[in-house]
Amino acid sequence: MTIPGEVLRAHTQRLLAAAQEHPSGIVPIVQAGHPVLRMVAEPYDGQFDSAELEALIALMHRTMRAAPGVGLAAPQIGLPLALAVVEDPGAIDDEMRIARERPAVEFRVLVNPRYTPVGEQRVAFYEGCLSVEGYQAVVARPRQIHLTGADETGRTLDEVVSGWPARIVQHETDHLGGTLYLDRAELRSLAATDELGGSWAAEPHPVAASRALRFDLEAPPTA
């Protein structure tokens, strides 16, 4: 079912008004169980003027940073629109950066993004989600993807993305199709983000977690 542009605009205006009431100019992130997280987001085709789009993107950027997170899709603030923002400072630890192929990612906007795997290599790491607070699980994803779509200026995106940046793109694009990372996860790996669970996620590769929690782990990529 197509959502009329005026409905999306009205919803966006309510979000922007709500953000003005918050000291940090942010809005709540909806949690698993909210129907919007299971909807297929409406493609963006110019429903907003440039000022409205700019304000929405700025709101998503602030909300993502405050969480803090490395990506945020519009459905996560309750708006069923195919729009996402990503930004990652990268891994500080050299071993983690190399093992996870996690460089810094500058802030960018994804409009109507889609991805397809490039090659057959898959890598498995712990992931969390701002809409599934308090938990994390191992997800095996394609190491490299072909990303298409556009940015906020309408410039076409057509590029190959690898490593952790590819994981972020996949995670956020999945949100726009109504998919949560848990749908793709090894559920035996599910762990709370407490001291023990944090130790599992802090490994360069989740080998200790796979042994302790008894789940299969695909072989990590070679250096």
Strand content: 25-35%
> Between the first and last Cα atoms, what is the distance in angstroms?
46 Å
The CATH class designation is Alpha Beta
Summed over residues and divided by their number, the pLDDT gives a mean of 95
> What composes the largest sheet?
5 strands, antiparallel
Please identify which CATH superfamily we are dealing with: Peptide deformylase
The share of residues in helices is 25-40%
How would you sum up the global shape?
A: globular
Q: Return the domain count.
A: 1
The tally of helices reads 6
Protein model, in words:
The radius of gyration is 18 Å and the shape is globular. Strand 4 and strand 5 (135-142) form a beta hairpin. The model is unreliable at 219-223 (pLDDT under 50). It has one domain: Peptide Deformylase (Alpha-Beta Complex), CATH 3.90.45. It has helices at residues 5-20, 50-66, 94-100, 163-176, 195-201, 207-213; strands at residues 71-73, 83-88, 105-117, 122-128, 135-142, 144-150, 156-162, 185-192. With 223 residues, the protein is α+β, with helices and mostly antiparallel strands. A 5-stranded antiparallel sheet has the order 1-2-3-6-7, sandwiched between helices. A 3-stranded antiparallel sheet has the order 4-5-8. Helix 1 crosses helix 2.
